[in-house]
Design brief:
Rossmann fold, single chain, 6-stranded parallel sheet, Alpha-Beta Plaits, 25% strand, alpha/beta, 4 domains, 15 helices, NAD(P)-bd_dom_sf, 467 residues
Length: 467
């Protein structure tokens, strides 16, 4: 695919890295020449220095024959206008736009949706095919972690019918120290599949005789209503969370408090007085506190030792890290920390900070969903981009498809790839060798080695006989 990426920041750069490694034709537009040179030195991509929304810059980047424009600059307005210019002047088939401000997102009529099949000549609003809101994605990500105590990552497929969960196996979990085959004996009525195990950052492809060890990072897939039962096998049962403390009242903090306040006791700490006044008017049940999270006295006064989850979601990585470390030291049960700099994520996760959340990785997965070939409806980037989970729809018949009509043990998968489950007409079928893939099945795959993605995509592309 020929793809134009507008904006060479963290998201644009990470996305370019992901896509360039998969033999796409990538061009990045940005006004920062030094940043473009740095990317060009590392990646096999073209760069154009200029304003991303200017017709001249888009034309110079090759917008006239581009398959897709992905606008991820730091300016919502630039992103929206760039998509409009690309669509109206250069008839770009697919435009993807990152929009942060809720003032725009709350007005659906500003954007036409692709499924409305409107004629370009009669368009009203910005011609954007796919809207991406990092704040919305991060809020959903944090909410799922709070709803599933003990999880490191919770990913949904087929509208939540099935979930892929990552957690740290802990001594005291019934399965820890046993072979995986023991799970079936111990829980005969619960069907699940372990998709991958990472031990000291080394991937292990799970088999029946694989023994789960204390400290293993285990990825398993199960129907949504079986998740908690399987989690209880891998770590001692964690009590449901009740008290949530949010540090930072920006877009993410506000959205998170609004999502959680009806089910949890939520406190939100914000240092800006005017923002506190606005939050107290917008939020109904959340207790709004004015002050600095690095102030030990404020945290002690608010009984931080009784807090179940401390979420640091300000725009400042260092402030988030310091506030999280202080909260943990003072007794907070679990600490979730928003980290924008990807180099920090590996440094801090797993110590005093339980989960480091990278907005870039959360956003990248959502963007990749629209870039993948074949009918891919969900992509999740895992382990800082090294692994990937995808949901692909099987089309065709036994003559035109490499998967339809075949038993799972007859499908030749690339090394390091496993099929975790199939969703068929709203029924979750955990992967077993005897299951045959049928047309329109949603197949959920886990890839330890993301560089094999092209081979997986080819499996789900329909041959000419289908037409």
């Amino acid at each position: 695919m020929k793809i134009l990426i507008l904006g060479a920041g963290q998201v644009g750069g990470t996305l370019a890295e992901n896509l360039a490694n998969e033999a796409n034709d990538i061009t990045i537009i940005d006004s920062d020449g030094a940043r473009l040179r740095e990317l060009q030195d590392r990646l096999d991509i073209r760069t154009v220095q200029g304003e991303a929304s200017y017709p001249t810059a888009l034309r110079q980047a090759g917008a006239e024959d581009a398959d897709m424009v992905i606008a991820v600059t730091n300016s919502d307005e630039t992103n929206m206008v760039a998509c409009q210019v690309a669509k109206l002047l250069y008839k770009t088939p697919t435009t993807i736009c990152r929009v942060r401000a809720n003032a725009y997102l709350s007005k659906a009529e500003l954007f036409y949706q692709r499924d409305q099949k409107k004629d370009l000549d009669s368009l009203r609003g910005f011609p954007i095919d796919v809207l991406i809101s990092p704040e919305h994605l991060v809020t959903k990500h944090i909410t799922r972690l709070i709803e599933n105590p003990g999880a490191l990552q919770v990913l949904e497929f087929s509208k939540g019918l099935t979930q892929l969960v990552a957690l740290r196996a802990t001594k005291g979990g019934p399965l820890v120290g046993h072979e995986l085959s023991y799970l079936r004996t111990h829980m005969p009525k619960i069907d699940t599949r372990v998709a991958a195990i990472f031990r000291k950052d080394r991937a292990i492809m799970p088999e029946g005789k694989t023994v789960i060890e204390d400290g293993d990072e285990v990825f398993f897939i199960a129907a949504g209503d079986h998740i908690k039962s399987v989690m209880s096998e891998l770590q001692p049962l964690v009590k449901p969370y009740k008290r949530i403390f949010i540090c930072g009242g920006g877009n993410i903090g506000q959205r998170l408090a609004s999502t959680l306040e009806s089910r949890y006791q939520v406190k939100l700490l914000e240092r800006n007085h005017d923002r506190c006044v606005m939050l107290s008017e917008k939020l109904r049940k959340t207790v709004i506190l004015e002050g600095n999270a690095a102030n030990k006295d404020i945290l002690l006064e608010e009984n931080i030792e009784n807090t179940d989850v401390f979420c640091a979601v300000t725009n400042d990585d260092e402030a988030n890290i310091m506030a999280s470390l202080l909260a943990k030291r003072l007794g907070a049960r679990k600490v979730l920390t928003l980290i924008n700099n990807p180099d920090y994520v590996d440094l801090i996760q797993g110590g005093d900070i339980d989960v480091a959340i990278s907005p870039q990785q959360t956003t990248i997965g959502s963007l990749l969903t629209h870039v993948r070939r074949g009918d891919v409806v969900n992509v999740h980037s895992l382990r800082r981009g090294a692994a990937e989970a995808i949901e692909a729809i099987a089309h065709g018949d036994h003559r035109s498809s490499k998967v339809v009509g075949k038993r799972l043990d007859e499908i030749t998968l690339p090394a390091g790839t496993t099929i975790g489950a199939i969703v068929r007409r709203n029924e979750v079928l955990i992967a077993h060798d005897h299951i045959r893939v049928q047309p329109d099945d949603h197949v959920i795959l886990f890839m330890v080695d993301k560089t094999r993605i092209r081979e997986v995509e080819k499996l789900f592309q329909v041959g000419l006989t289908f037409f």
